[in-house]
Design a protein that fits this description.
Helix content is 51%, strand content 20%. It is of the alpha+beta class. It folds into three domains: 111 residues; 163 residues, Alpha-Beta Plaits; 71 residues, 2-Layer Sandwich (Double Stranded RNA Binding Domain). The chain has an eight-stranded mixed sheet with strand order 2-3-1-5-4-9-10-11. The chain has a three-stranded antiparallel sheet with strand order 6-7-8, covered by helices on one side. Helix 1 crosses helix 3 and helix 3 packs antiparallel against helix 4. About 4% of the residues have low confidence.
Length: 362
């Protein structure tokens, strides 16, 4: 067994032991009555369950391999039995190699697969109305892809232009594996095409930025309410008499970090407050996780790019019907299908590259 495989087995043993510890904790009467602790332990157990079950199957195969090897090394064993043991050994070793590869892939992506809700923020960048139209196109691309995955999309806040583009749109997507697939979308997106308003057929370059934030469960992040200032005001803009007469707009300010969230999309103050808290929690979770990962991963990279909105990650070239992802040097010549929501090939390439990088760094 190679050094890297030994390292993986050591890690898998640690996870297996932790799983047993959680089982023992959950069975305690005092934990069964502590809802917060029980939920936290159950979620931790759920995250590692798939890896543990596969690893236990691997250990069972490994035990059978050792038995077959003992028969082959026994000088007194009958030759027919040795022949059967050799056949079994060849089959078991092939299964075990395949299973270890599967376990390793599951292991490196387990944390991502456990997050089933994200908040996405798309903002128009340079390019005026054309940038806002591109922001709208990106939003529609993601929502169409979400439909194919049977994920739930919920609009949280948006600001439109006269030409039906988006200056900004914030929305959530919920569903199994959503972070593992859309977590790579954070960064700068650039479009090259002839705008609708261009009379001479010239290609213009515009941009939009995308942020993808994992939406935490209540147990993932605790915010001290005393650290958050709430400002209530009347919502401006269109929406009828109620919008201007009732104080329904909410602004939350997290004093320690300076992060602010404003929400005026709903006529109900209660609904605006709930949405604002969801976005605030996601932004704080993203900030704290980023700090934690920076400390942990200061000597290695385990993601494709940083997800920073200033980083150009992708170009959509309409004249050539081409999408280029600059992080993995991949160009696909069916932009029309991708922008219509057929993102699977692009996302799979990003996931495979990311998995390779994580395996190297494991």
């Amino acid at each position: 067994m190679s050094e890297s495989e030994n390292g993986i087995i050591t890690k898998l043993n640690e996870i297996d032991n932790r799983y047993s510890e959680i089982e023992a904790e959950i069975s305690k009467p005092e934990v069964a009555t502590d809802t917060v602790k029980l939920v936290k332990l159950s979620r931790e157990q759920g995250k590692i369950k798939a890896v543990v079950l596969k690893y236990r199957e691997y250990k069972k195969f490994f035990s059978q391999i050792e038995e077959a090897q003992q028969i082959l090394s026994d000088n007194d064993a009958d030759q027919d039995i040795k022949d059967l043991a050799q056949e079994e050994l060849t089959e078991l070793e092939a299964k075990n190699i395949s299973l270890l590869e599967e376990i390793t892939s599951t292991l490196v992506m387990a944390d991502d697969m456990s997050i089933d809700s994200v908040i996405m923020e798309i903002r128009a960048g340079t390019g005026g109305d054309e940038a806002a139209l591109f922001a709208r196109d990106l939003y529609e691309m993601y929502t169409r892809y979400a439909e194919t995955r049977k994920w739930k999309v919920e609009s949280l806040d948006f600001s439109t232009t006269e030409k039906s583009g988006f200056r900004e749109i914030i929305f959530s997507i919920k569903g199994s594996g959503v972070w593992a697939e859309l977590g790579y979308e954070g960064g700068g997106h650039r479009v090259q095409r002839v705008p609708e308003t261009e009379t001479q057929g010239r290609v213009h370059t515009s941009a939009a930025t995308v942020a993808v934030l994992a939406e935490p469960e209540e147990v993932d992040i605790q915010i001290n309410p005393n650290d958050v200032l709430e400002h209530v005001s009347r919502a401006g803009g269109p929406g009828g008499q109620n919008v201007n007469k009732v104080s329904s707009a909410i602004k939350l300010e997290h004093v320690p970090t300076g992060i602010t969230v404003s929400m005026r999309d709903e006529k109900s103050q209660h609904k605006n407050r709930a949405k604002a808290w969801r976005i605030l929690k996601s932004r704080l979770y993203d900030l704290f996780q980023g700090q934690k990962n920076a400390e942990r991963d200061s000597k290695r990279k385990n993601m494709i790019g940083s997800g920073d909105r200033s980083q150009k990650i992708r170009t959509y070239n309409y004249p050539q019907n081409r999408v280029t992802d600059h992080r993995i040097n991949l160009s696909l010549y069916h932009l029309d299908r991708i922008i219509a929501g057929d993102m699977e090939e692009l996302i799979t390439a990003l996931k495979n590259y990311d998995m390779e990088q994580r395996l190297k760094n494991l």
